Amino acid sequence: MKYSHTIFRKYFALAFISARSNFAYFAEVLSRQLFLAVILYILLRLWQQTYSHCGLQQMAGLSLPQMLWYLTATEAIILSSSPISTIMDEEIRSGSLAMQLIRPTPYPLYRLALYLGERALRLLANFFIGSIICFVLVREIPVSVVGILALAMALPLAIILDFLGNFLVGLAAFWLENTSGILFIYSRLTMVLGGMLIPLDLLPAPYSNLAKSLPFASMVYGPARQFVHPCNFELLQFIVLQISWIFVFSIIVWQVYSLALKRVASNGG
Amino acid sequence: MAIKVENLTKQFILNKRDGWRSIKTEVLAVDSINFSVNSGQSLALIGPNGAGKSTTIKMLTGILHPSAGQAKVLGLTPWRERTRLAYQIGAVFGQRSQLWYHLPPEDTFELLSRIYNLDRNQYKEQRNLLIERFDLGPFLKTPVRKLSLGQRMRAEIAASLLHKPRLLFLDEPTIGVDIVARQELRDLIREWNKQDGVTVLITSHDAGDIEHVADRVIVINHGHIVLDDNLSNMRQRYLSSKILSARFHGEHKTVDLHGAKVLQSANYSIEVEIDTSVVTTEKVIKHILELGTIADISIEDPPLEEIIAHIYSQPVTNNDSSTHT
Known about the structure:
Number of helices of chain A: 12
CATH class of the largest domain in chain B: Alpha Beta
Largest interface: A-B, 29 and 40 residues
Mean pLDDT of chain A: 90
Number of domains of chain B: 2
Shape of chain A: globular
Largest sheet of chain A: 2 strands, antiparallel
Largest sheet of chain B: 6 strands, mixed
Number of domains of chain A: 1
Radius of gyration of chain A: 20 Å
Order of helices and strands of chain A: HHEEHHHHHHHHHH
Strand content of chain A: under 5%
Radius of gyration of chain B: 24 Å
Structural class of chain B: alpha/beta
Helix content of chain A: over 70%
Oligomer: heterodimer
Structural class of chain A: mainly alpha
Number of strands of chain A: 2
Helix content of chain B: 25-40%
Strand order of the largest sheet of chain A: 1-2
Low-confidence stretches of chain B: 317-325
Number of helices of chain B: 10
Number of strands of chain B: 13
């Protein structure tokens, strides 16, 4: 019990210092909020026109206000992402990874704690600003307490899964000259197959089901969908899927990380 | 025994491109070195760029896996028991910071206390001691980005001592630091080594760091140990010259003695390099006394840079003979 408490305090301290350090990048956080405001306004007009032209009250089981709150959630999640793979790329290339390897904390867990701290801060800011913007534009909050609880359950797992994906991209720096290409592909897949712009339910049935079963949907679509349209069975099904993907990704990360450690050349000196 | 190294070898494989072809080249960074370090000793590992000293440190801290050979650091095999070893060693890499750039040093200290699972009372006691000894008080609450390099390095070394390591690795700890701050850092490292018994392994290009911090020096070149000795023996063995400086009350006559080479000569002073293999120091002093009325005279060893340059120019010897405890 005492041991687990000590471990928790260690990783909490890492997450906390990461969040605190990110306050220094206030201008960057602010610019993301401005971008969020602009993109939400465009999406609102776009979907208002779509609903109006189609003459539909609901699309993919969502009303227009629900659709806009869904998009607020997906944008808030996507825009909260942290450039961890770029940081890792730099650490591996410059040799500063050495500083982390001499600590009594496994590097993947160290990075995970920092990532959670930073992303928690960005998510809070994005959801806060995004909710205000969305409310001003929609004048309605079609979100229930159950939806908020569902989001609170699904979001941490989504963030951990996204971390594992990003960590794998960062590890590629041990083999590749430059990881920016892989990162570009990964981030675009997260946006498109994660349902950032269009809910995956709007895709034709076979593609929709396939997309929902992929890890990208577990990172973005799932939490946002449960936020605006909670369903106990779907939530349970979804969380089982998230945990399964986390399990698979963890094994891959551990294997790749073990291989990568043997390739550490650590520049300098 | 703090460190025992046997036939430690590290080979890197570099991929070079020749058009479309990829050519693999093997580089032997560390070539079967042997040495050991007693607890409480202060050892300098020196050598030119690419000599293998940082690679050696990285193998001893468990960051790099060796290609062959064995090493025990505080009884542990570094690359197999890196996490256990991490609790007992501290490390400062001069060109890499462990402090959080946008936060004050005290925040990093707090974080490190959690990372190393330190008892709260023991942590506070050690932190206060370090603040006092390293004079960190004036900038403890200042963001690291606003500190001078000297202040930052003091905080870096203090951070590495927070968990009371038994062994401290310092890789170029004074690089880029001004001369006053450099001397302060050397004094602090020396003090911690002598008073608290921390074993120190330092690498540096700065001869002053070695002179002030180390008891013993290992010179590495091309992955081999070319010298393993204490400082005074190193001087005697590798440079048979002394520098004699004399000041006169009036004008002096010219030096005319085989084995005494004039380095500088002014109206009232002279600087002579004595080749002790040709002429004794005593004979040179006698000769200098005959040149005029002496106001002051001093004899010094040549700068360590010269000794190191001399060693680098020597052919590689069998490193088995240089093993030293």
